[in-house]
Design a protein that fits this description.
- The structure holds two protein chains of two kinds.
- In chain A, helix 1 (6-20) runs parallel beside helix 6 (141-152) and helix 3 (55-66) runs parallel beside helix 4 (86-95).
- In chain A, strand 6, helix 6 (141-152) and strand 7 form a beta-alpha-beta unit.
- In chain A, strands 3-2-4-5-7-6-12 form a seven-stranded mixed β-sheet, sandwiched between helices. In chain A, strands 9-11-10-13-14 form a five-stranded mixed β-sheet, sandwiched between helices.
- Chain A is globular, with a radius of gyration of 19 Å.
- Chain A has helices at 6-20, 38-43, 55-66, 86-95, 123-128, 141-152, 201-211, 234-244, 259-269, 292-298, 303-313, and strands at 3-5, 24-28, 48-50, 71-77, 100-105, 134-136, 158-161, 166-168, 183-186, 191-195, 221-225, 228-230, 246-254, 275-281.
- Chain A is 36% helix and 21% strand.
- Chain A folds into two domains: 3-168, Rossmann fold (3-Layer(aba) Sandwich), CATH 3.40.50; 183-313, Rossmann fold (3-Layer(aba) Sandwich).
- Chain B has one domain (9-258): 3-Layer(aba) Sandwich (Rossmann fold), CATH 3.40.50.
- Helix content of chain B is 39%, strand content 13%.
- Chain B contains nine helices and seven strands, in the order ααβααβαβββααβαβα.
- Chain B has helices at residues 9-28, 32-47, 66-75, 115-125, 143-154, 175-178, 184-190, 203-214, 249-258; strands at 57-60, 131-136, 160-166, 169-170, 173-174, 194-199, 220-225.
- Chain B has a five-stranded parallel β-sheet, with helices on both faces.
- In chain B, helix 2 (32-47) packs parallel to helix 3.
- The radius of gyration of chain B is 17 Å and the shape is globular.
- The two termini of chain B are 21 Å apart.
- Classes of the chains: A alpha/beta, B alpha/beta.
- The A-B interface holds A 27, 49, 51-52, 54, 56-70, 87-88, 90-92, 95-96 and B 59, 100, 106-111, 113-126, 143-144, 147-148, 150-151, 155.
Chain lengths: 314, 259
């Protein structure tokens, strides 16, 4: 399994795209190095706007700059942007429909040692509630590249959630990313597992465990990568849930406002009868640890939690 | 015999706009106090023959001053004047707080402190033209304003003009009591801005300050000392007239007679 960094993929992809697309600008809030934007800043100093530790002004500047015809990437950590500057995102970016792509890096419990203040678990909730905003959470480094390319062709505001550590690559290089489309990473018949971001790796590990268990070896999981959280691929999701009748939503985010609520609402609205488990952080703040596995186990979103949920829902 | 005072031509324009503004707010309610204090400033920006808004930009950061901007835009021909009759009504294009859906409006606002950041972005992306922002003094209590002041200085936004409607009143009372700004001009100077202080109801001073600001190499601030509710005696400096819902007919008639 190839391991790559999602945020490095972002920084390098943007730098490549900026060579030919002269409209790409970065508005940064003192986090150039962690987002691998040193090269961008060096090669395109006039298109790299440094705002310092002032995310609220940065969001307003990004919105105004976008109105002069630029495609602006507003870059920071998710715990600051969109967390500190939400109302500027609402008014200056969304209500004014400005072409700003918000990069929220270091999201989720994967920022292991940093603790509660930096483990952003509410970003999807904050962003999906805004009209005009599109929300994406890439599975891996490869899909990050595809998502960054796709959003530069769109004029809409977008939020892209990135994570800090290097993570395994799952995305099929032959596939394209399309806004509003989800890919099935694995076809199955018994349980639909839907999620976003690198945590979906757990589903493959759980399938491997099931395969080795005589009682469960015939169970197959249908794994859906819901990287396009808004707009949502309702067709793919509904089709799968109609087939399996069982759904587990897995995410490194609060239950409140997360993908699980989006999908639950979709299923109820379509009068589909289905068993449902939402594995996400249950109304708690994060905390420090040396490995993410310790945190995933503590907050009930680890591999064993998923395995238990699979057995329970059958 | 009264001494003969030659009126600035824009004084006559703004006097007519005051009538439109009062009529509009009498019918629909609205933020009249600040609209009357800022009206001469917006009038100078649009009717002073200094800017071309096919290229230059005007950002109303204090979005509750929408009545003043709408009245100016209607009279400048951006949309029919009868739109003013239904201001903030359900099917009206004219939202209560200023909206970019309205012809001539470049930025939707209402939440204070954001417009100057947006104006910084515009000024940076369009250096060949002038970006004018209008903020209120009370708005300067928002931290975002001070972030944008640092930014404008760093990026040498000499094409940016921030006009401050300095009426010294806010919803709950005088700015000096709610949260004093003290010497705002010296604060702007220490942030590296060029500052001019003017009488915000004297067109000669406003126009002159706007002309000088266009030549500056540094971001420009025009602190315009204004009177809340300007032109209507019982509204002047009376913070209870920050906004009105239902102005009684008798008071409306009194106000009309004073204009």
């Amino acid at each position: 399994m190839i391991i790559n960094s999602i945020r490095q993929s972002f920084g390098e992809t943007l730098c490549k795209l900026a060579k030919t697309n002269k409209n790409i600008y970065v508005v940064n809030a003192d986090l150039k190095s962690p987002l691998f934007l040193n090269n961008f800043a060096k090669k395109f100093p006039h298109r790299f706007i440094e705002c310092g530790v002032a995310e609220t002004n940065a969001a307003g500047v990004a919105a105004g700059l976008a109105k002069t015809g630029k495609t602006v990437f507003l870059t920071s950590f998710a715990c600051f942007s969109p967390a500190i500057n939400w109302n500027t995102i609402k008014q200056s970016i969304c209500y004014n429909n400005s072409n700003v792509k918000i990069i929220g890096s270091h999201a989720g419990l994967l920022s292991t040692d940093l603790g509660a203040t930096h483990q952003m678990l509410e970003d999807i909730s904050l962003m999906r509630s805004l009209p005009n905003m599109e929300v994406f959470s890439p599975l891996d480094a490869l899909e990050t590249t595809k998502i960054i390319k796709a959003v530069t062709f769109s004029k809409k505001p977008a939020y892209i959630r990135l994570v800090r550590p290097s993570t395994p690559n799952f995305f099929d290089p032959k596939l394209d990313f399309t806004i509003g489309k989800s890919h099935r990473l694995q076809s199955g018949k018994d349980i639909t597992i839907i999620g976003h971001g690198p945590i979906l790796e757990e589903a493959f590990q759980v399938q491997a465990k099931l395969n080795l268990d005589s009682k469960y070896k015939k169970i197959s999981l249908e794994i859906i990568n819901c990287s396009s959280i808004k707009p949502l691929d309702t067709i793919t999701i509904l089709k799968s849930v109609k087939k399996t009748g069982r759904l587990i939503c897995l995410e490194d985010h609060q239950q409140n406002g997360g993908l699980g609520e989006v999908v639950a609402s979709l299923i109820l609205s379509n009068n589909i009868s289905c068993k449902f488990i939402h594995l996400a952080v249950d109304n708690k703040f994060g905390r420090s640890a040396k490995t993410y596995q310790e945190l995933y186990d503590y907050y009930g979103i680890g591999i064993n939690d998923l395995l238990s949920a699979v057995k329970k829902i059958l | 015999m009264l001494p003969f005072i030659k009126l600035h031509p824009l004084q006559i324009v703004s006097q007519n706009l005051r009538h439109d503004l009062l009529d509009m707010v009498y019918k629909n309610g609205g933020h009249i106090g600040g609209s009357l204090s800022s009206l001469d400033l917006i009038t100078a920006v649009y009717f002073g023959n200094l800017f071309n808004f096919k290229r230059d930009h005007f950002i109303l950061s204090a979005g509750h001053l929408a009545p003043a901007l709408y009245v100016v835009l209607a009279n400048a021909g951006y949309f029919p004047k009868n739109f003013l009759d239904n201001y903030s009504s359900f099917k009206s294009l004219l939202q209560g707080h200023v909206s970019a859906e309205v012809p001539g409006v470049e930025y939707s606002s209402g939440s204070l402190g954001q417009g100057l950041s947006f104006a910084c972005g515009l000024a940076l992306g369009d250096k060949k033209h002038t970006t004018i922002c209008l903020t209120s003094d009370g708005e300067h209590q928002e931290g975002q304003i001070w972030e944008s002041l640092l930014f404008a200085k760093k990026y040498k936004l000499g094409n940016l003009i921030n006009i401050v409607d300095f009426n010294q009143m806010q919803i709950d009372g005088p700015v000096s009591q709610i949260m004093p700004l003290d010497n705002l001009a010296s604060k702007y100077i220490s942030f590296g801005w060029t500052v001019t202080t003017v009488d915000g109801h004297d067109f000669k001073q406003i126009i002159s300050a706007l002309k000088n600001a266009q030549k500056s190499d540094y971001p420009n601030c025009i602190i315009a000392k204004t009177v809340l509710g300007k032109g209507i005696s019982f509204m002047e400096n009376n913070f209870h007239y920050h906004d009105v819902k239902n102005l009684p007919e008798a008071l409306f008639n009194k106000a009309k007679s004073e204009l």
